[in-house]
Design a protein that fits this description.
The complex is a heterodimer. Chain A is α/β, with parallel strands linked by helices. Chain A has 4 helices and 9 strands, in the order αββαββββββαβα. In chain A, the strands form 3 sheets. A 5-stranded mixed sheet of chain A has the order 1-2-7-6-3, covered by helices on one side. Chain A has a two-stranded antiparallel ribbon with strand order 4-5. In chain A, a hairpin with a 4-residue loop joins strand 6 and strand 7. The mean pLDDT of chain A is 89. By secondary structure, chain B is α/β, with parallel strands linked by helices. The model of chain B has no long low-confidence stretch (mean pLDDT 90). Chain B has 6 helices and 6 strands; from the N terminus they run ααβαβαβαβαββ. In chain B, strands 1-2-3-4 form a 4-stranded parallel sheet. Helices cover 30% and strands 9% of the residues of chain B. The chains are: A alpha/beta, B alpha/beta. Chains A and B meet through loops of A and loops of B.
C-alpha cells in the first residue's frame, strides 16, 4: 500500500481545492492520519473509496475526539547574549490553541485487503452544534456511528439521513463525552470513595450542609 | 396446637398445618420469575435455569414473558437511565404479591459503571428490592442462594393479624412513580419514599 503522503498527493490532484494535511502520530503505533477540510471531505472520501489503488470500501469505525482550549508549550533554542558571550539558550514558547472537535474515520479495503487509512474532519470550534460533512452516503456503516458522535460530542453531520440521538434519550441536553461535561450531582451515597469520587462526594456533602 | 401433638398425628398419617403455612408453602415453591435480562448477569440467570443448576428444583423454572403472570422480577444486569423507566413500569404491571431480586453489582449499585453518565446507581432507588446479590456477575449458586433467601422471606410472611404482609394492606403502595426523562438526568433522580442514602459513619 502506498504511503499516506502519496495518498494525500493523489487526493489533492483528484479533488481540486481540497486542503489535506497529514497528522503525525509519534507513538510506536505510528498511525498517521489524513486531516481533510470539511468542505471537500465528501469528495476526498469518495476518491478514497472509488480509487482503484485504494478501494477503501469499508468504514470500520467512526469516533469523536474533544480537544479543549489549550496552552501549548514548545522548547525553542534561541541565541542570546549572556554576560557578553553569545550562547544558545532554551526558551519555552507558549502558544494558545482554540479547542475543536474531531470526527475520525477508520477506513479499510475488503477487496484489496489493506488499511486502515485514518481520515479526520475538524470543526472550527467547540461551540454547540458544529458542523462536519456526513460520510454516510458513501459508507452505510457510518450511519449509527455518526449518530453516536452526534449524541455524545454534539457534532452535527451535514447530509446525514437521520441525525437523532442514539444512546441518550431525546430531550437530553448535554453531550456526555465532552471533556467539560458536568454530570448530575448524585454522590449522596459513596461508601468507599477515593480520588475524584472522594472530591465529588465531599462537594456533595458540603452542598447538602449549606442547604440544611 | 403444640408440636408434640402434631408430631404424634403425623406419625398416624394425619398432617395438620395452619392455613398460613400451606399458603406460604405453595407460594414459595411456585415463584415465577419475569423473563427479562439487561446484561451479562442474564447469562448467569439463564445458566441457573438450565439443566446443570436447575432452578426447577426450587419451583422457579417457569419464566413468564408477561409481567401479569410473574411473581418475581430478577433485575439481571446494568440498568441504564434510559432503561430505568421501563423497568419500573414492568414492576408496576406485576400483580401483588411481587418480589424483586437485584442481581449483580450493577443492579445493586451501578457497579463498575457507577461513575458513568448513563447508569442508574442501583434499581433500589425506584423500586423496593427484597434480595441484593453482589458479584460481577454472581455465579448461578449465588442466584440460587438469593432464591432460597427469598423463599425464607416468603415463608415468614404473615397472612393474618396486625403484622401481616404489606400486600394485604390497601394503603401500602404496590405501584411506584415512573421516572421521566429530564434534560440532564432522570426526574426525579430517586424516589425518597423507597430509597434513602445510608448514613456512612467515618
Amino acid at each position: 500500500m502506498e504511503t499516506l503522503e502519496q495518498t494525500k498527493a493523489r487526493a489533492e490532484a483528484a479533488v481540486p481545492g481540497a486542503q489535506l494535511s497529514v497528522v503525525k502520530n509519534d507513538s510506536p503505533s505510528a498511525q498517521h492520519s489524513l486531516l481533510v477540510d470539511v468542505e471537500h471531505a465528501y469528495a476526498v472520501a469518495k476518491f478514497l473509496r472509488d480509487d482503484p489503488q485504494l478501494r477503501l470500501d469499508y468504514c470500520s469505525n467512526v469516533t469523536g475526539v474533544d480537544f479543549l482550549d489549550a496552552e501549548l508549550s514548545e522548547k525553542v533554542k534561541v541565541k542570546k547574549v549572556v554576560d557578553g558571550v553569545e550562547k544558545e539558550v532554551e526558551e519555552v514558547k507558549k502558544t494558545k490553541r482554540a479547542g475543536y472537535l474531531e470526527a475520525v474515520y477508520h477506513l479499510y479495503s475488503m477487496s484489496l485487503k489493506h488499511g486502515p487509512v485514518i481520515l479526520r474532519q475538524r470543526t472550527p470550534g467547540r461551540a454547540d452544534l458544529v458542523k462536519v460533512t456526513s460520510l454516510t452516503p458513501l459508507w452505510r456503516s457510518c450511519e449509527f456511528q455518526e449518530r453516536e458522535v452526534f449524541d455524545l460530542y454534539g457534532v452535527l453531520f451535514d447530509g446525514h439521513p437521520d441525525l437523532r440521538r442514539i444512546l441518550m434519550w431525546d430531550g437530553f441536553k448535554d453531550y456526555p463525552m465532552r471533556k467539560d461535561y458536568v454530570e448530575p450531582d448524585d454522590y449522596e451515597y459513596e461508601p468507599t470513595p477515593h480520588d475524584e469520587v472522594l472530591e465529588k462526594a465531599k462537594a456533595h456533602q458540603a452542598a447538602q450542609e449549606v442547604k440544611a | 396446637m403444640d408440636d408434640g401433638l402434631r408430631n404424634e398425628l403425623s406419625k398416624q398419617g394425619v398432617v395438620v398445618v395452619k392455613l398460613e403455612e400451606l399458603y406460604n408453602w405453595g407460594r414459595k415453591n411456585s415463584v415465577w420469575p419475569l423473563s427479562f435480562g439487561l446484561a451479562c448477569c442474564a447469562i448467569e440467570m439463564m445458566a441457573a435455569s438450565m439443566a446443570r443448576y436447575d432452578l426447577a428444583r426450587f419451583g422457579a423454572e417457569v419464566f413468564r414473558p408477561s409481567p401479569r403472570q410473574a411473581d418475581l422480577m430478577i433485575v439481571a444486569g446494568t440498568v441504564t437511565k434510559k432503561m430505568a423507566p421501563q423497568v419500573v413500569r414492568l414492576y408496576n404491571q406485576m400483580p401483588e404479591p411481587k418480589y424483586v431480586i437485584a442481581m449483580g453489582a450493577c443492579a445493586i449499585s451501578g457497579g463498575p459503571f457507577k461513575q458513568g453518565y448513563n447508569v442508574l446507581k442501583g434499581i433500589d432507588r425506584y423500586i423496593p428490592v427484597d434480595v441484593h446479590i453482589p458479584g460481577c456477575p454472581p455465579r448461578p449458586e449465588a442466584l440460587i442462594h438469593a432464591f432460597m433467601t427469598l423463599q425464607r422471606k416468603i415463608d415468614a410472611q404473615k397472612v393474618f393479624g396486625p403484622d401481616r404482609a404489606h400486600y394485604f394492606d390497601a394503603s401500602k403502595p404496590s405501584e411506584f412513580p415512573v421516572p421521566l426523562f429530564g434534560e440532564h438526568d432522570l426526574v426525579p433522580p430517586k424516589n425518597p419514599n423507597v430509597w434513602e442514602p445510608a448514613v456512612v459513619v467515618r
